[in-house]
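# nightly structure sweep
# worker-07 picked up a monomer target from the shared queue
# config: single-sequence mode, recycle default, output format = C-alpha cells
# input follows
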Amino acid sequence: MSEQQTSKSGIKSFPLNYWVVIMMEFFERGSYYGMMSILSVYMTDQLSYTKESVGVIKSVIQPMLYILPILSGAIGDRFGYKRILTFAFIFLGLGYFLTSQTTEYAMVFGSLIIMAVGAGAFKPMISGTIARSTNESNSTLGFGIFYWSINLGAFLFPLILVPYIKNTFGWQYVMMASAIATASMLIPTFLIYKEPKRPESTKTLAEVLKGAVMVLTDIKFIGLIVIYSGFWILYFQMFDSVLWYVQKYVDATSLNNFVNGALGGIGINMNWKFDVEHVTVINAGTIIFLQLLVSNIVKHTKALPTMIAGIAMGTIGMAILAINTNIWVFMLGITIFSIGEMTAHPKFISYVGLIAPEDKKALYLGYSFLYGVIGSSVGALLGAFLYVHFVDNLNQPSTLWIIFSMIGVVTIIGLLLYNKFVSHQRPGQNS
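# output follows
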C-alpha cells in the first residue's frame, strides 16, 4: 500500500484491487448459492435422480471446496494470483454451463466437479488479495466487508434472480445465469485486477503436504475438528434434506398471503410465492441483519463455551422443525439455527487460534476448514439416506429432525468433554 492509502481511514483506505475482488466474491458466491439453493430439488424433480445419488454428488463436490484451497493457495503464491483467478473463472463458467446443458448423471457429476475445481481455486486468491490490500488498521473492516459480500450474494441471488429465472425460463437457466455471472468476471480480471506483491517466501506443494501430515497426526486437534463437524452435518441439510422437506410438506399459504397483502398495500402485485430457494435467503438474511449484534454480544465471552451455546441454539432450531409443518414454525427454526451458526463459528476460528502452537498458528488455522470436509461429506450422504427411509418410506419427517437434533446433542456433549479433559492441553503436544 502507498503512504497515501495508509493515511486514509474507513472504506476510503482500500485500494481499487480490494473492491475488484469484493465484486468478484459477490458474483461468485451469489452464483454458487443461487445454484445450491435449488440444486438438490432440481436433480430429483427435474432430472429424476434418486436422493441417494444426489447425496453421492454432494458428498464429493462440497468437500472439494474445503480441500482444494490449500493446494491452490500454494500454487497462487508461486505462480501469481491473476493466473489462478483466470483459471478459476474459466472452470466456474464452464462447470455451470455444462451443468445446465446435460441431464445424464455422469455428465452432471463431472460438470459439477469442474465447477468445484474452479471454486476451490478461487477462494484463496480472494482472501489473499484482501490480506495484501489491507493493513493492521483496516483489516478488521476489510474482512468484515468481505464476509458481508459473501452473505449478500447468498441473500440476493436466491431472493430475486433464482425465482425469476426458474419460473420464467426454466430451472436449468439458473445454472446458465451462474455461468454468465462467473465467466463475466474474466473481464475485470484482465482489465482491472492488479497482481498483488508476492510474499517473500512461498511454500512448495511438498511443504504444504508436509504441513498437512503434521496437522493430521495431531490427535487433540483432529479430535476437536471431528466433534465440531457434527454441527456442520446439520448445516449442510440446508441444501439437501431441508429443501426436499419444504417442497413436499411445508404449507406456505399464510406467508404468501401475508407478503402479497403487504406488497399490494404499496401497489405491487406480483403473486409472490415461498419456494425452496428461499431457505438460503432466510439463512443468509439472518446473518446479514444480526451478525453485528451477535458479534457484539459475544465479543468478550470465552470461545469454547460460546461455541457450545451456539451449537445448542442450532440444535434447538433443528428440533423446532419437528413440531409441525407450519411455515412460521419452519422459518423460526431456520432463523434460530442461523443465529446459532453465527454465534458458534467465529468463536471456533478464534479458539483454534488460541490453542494452536505459537509457531504454527497459521498452519492450524489453515487446516481448521476440515470441519467442512467431514460435515459436508457425511451430511450429504446421511441426510439423503435418512430422508428416504424416514420421510419417503415411513412418512415420518419429524423423526428425521429429531435424529439430526440428536447429532447436535452429541456434538455438545463431545465439546463439553473436550473442554473438561483436553482443552487445557495444547495441540502439538502428543506423545
